[in-house]
Amino acid sequence: MPALVLLGAQWGDEGKGKATDLLGGSVDYVVRYQGGNNAGHTVVVGDQKYALHLLPSGILSPECVPVIGNGVVVDPAVLLSELDGLAQRGVDTSKLLISGNAHLITPYHTTMDKVTERFLGKRKIGTTGRGIGPTYADKINRVGIRVQDLFDESILRQKVEAALDQKNQVLAKLYNRRAILADQVVEELLGYADKLRDYVCDTTLLLNEALDQDKVVLFEGGQGTLLDVDHGTYPFVTSSNPTAGGACTGSGVGPTRINRVIGILKAYTTRVGAGPFPTELFDEDGEKLRTIGGERGVTTGRDRRCGWFDAVIARYATRVNGLTDFFLTKLDVLTGWEQIPVCVAYEVDGRRVDELPYSQTDFHHAKPVYEMLPGWSEDISRAKTFEELPKNAQAYVKALEEMSGAPISAIGVGPGRDETIQINSFL
Ligand code: GDP
Ligand code: IMO
Ligand code: MG
């Protein structure tokens, strides 16, 4: 009854989509447990490239059942258009299951996301503008709308009216915007009900029964550890828990059932949006990583900020997630550097610090302490075993493994499914 969690060990975009897809053929269920269509997961199958936002990457594996868990926030318009887009490309989406307890992103949540960011001005978070924060805020505030509410018009109307009574005051008085009409929102949401009805079920019951029957369940995180609302670089974070604990609350599967937690770790570091980033590069090395790595956001098209590998962050991810393995991605992007700096610790106000400072002020002051590792120039994209990597690439991987505190069980050497070196099996 293996249950595995696969999550981002940095600030997102580590290559989770590719890693999930790779495992998709051997697992029975792939479950998204948090986040929403702020995610952008790229999967390359042969010459076909897919950009998934809300759907679990397992949707591309015919035998696998994709599940949207209770912890996810669902924009029904985006969901239906993503399903349509895949169906047009011949992907069977009929197996999808959606938790009735997942919360809905409505047009007023996306509006609130955008006006709040504008209001913050230069203090903005740099959100994806998809309504994620306001939807989770409503959930915690107990004024959210859930998927199951689509099927009871009278409850839906009461809840939308209650939520808008308060929001319209804020929109009009604080942001100088026109009020949003409850009738219009209810009508739009009711329009989705019949299209979604057959997908909706008690996913918690189903997943626990699947584990009882020895099925393999894979939990696919969105975003990453440092974007976690509790464990990330708050307030420059997303509004959910991408860390391993989120897989339990976001699905209703208990922690004792989870056997393996795999951290997806890029061989360097990227970040989208505002917030501290100690190893960020502002020179031609940063530009080179961005260009060779194709570091442009899948969701918002923004250039990703790029920097060297940060072992302090990797160690932190191992700790807060209880990682059992790493999947190191994009090693191929580092080909061609004579020497590769790796951040092994920080200097904070003249002191050396080996662990992530818990204080926001200290983290903002953290300067990377670099160790130089020798680079390689050989093309590694066709390597199938660890031994086929150049000696210096092997040494780079081994050094990262030692610094990061968990075994590197797979290495990505290209975006395709088969461009992977598997060292230890995940199952
Ligand atoms: P996710 O959000 O974690 O799923 O990652 P994204 O899809 O946003 O960004 C990762 C990018 O790296 C995508 O364009 C992937 O196709 C690509 N990718 C994943 N693994 C590798 C790898 O090992 N090498 C290279 N060159 N690209 C990779
Ligand atoms: P995947 O799953 C990278 C970032 C945004 C912003 C912050 C808050 O593809 O790795 P939000 O819209 O969530 O309220 O924005 O989080 N962010 C991501 N950065 N990858 C993602 O997803 C992200 N999802 C959100 O840029 O800084
Ligand atoms: Mg992404």
Automatic annotation (TrEMBL):
Which reaction is recorded as catalysed by this protein?
A: IMP + L-aspartate + GTP = N(6)-(1,2-dicarboxyethyl)-AMP + GDP + phosphate + 2 H(+)
Give the pathway annotation: Purine metabolism; AMP biosynthesis via de novo pathway; AMP from IMP: step 1/2
Q: Where in the cell is it found?
A: Cytoplasm
Q: InterPro entries from the xrefs?
A: Adenylosuccin_syn_GTP-bd, Adenylosuccin_syn_Lys_AS, Adenylosuccinate_synth_dom1, Adenylosuccinate_synth_dom2, Adenylosuccinate_synth_dom3, Adenylosuccinate_synthetase, P-loop_NTPase
Enzyme kind, highest EC tier: ligase
> Which of this chain's residues are annotated to bind Mg(2+)?
13, 40
Residues reported to bind substrate: 298-304
Which cofactors does this gene product need?
A: Mg(2+)
Entry-linked Pfam families: Adenylsucc_synt
Q: What is this protein called?
A: Adenylosuccinate synthetase
Which source organism? Streptomyces desertarenae
- Gene for this protein? purA
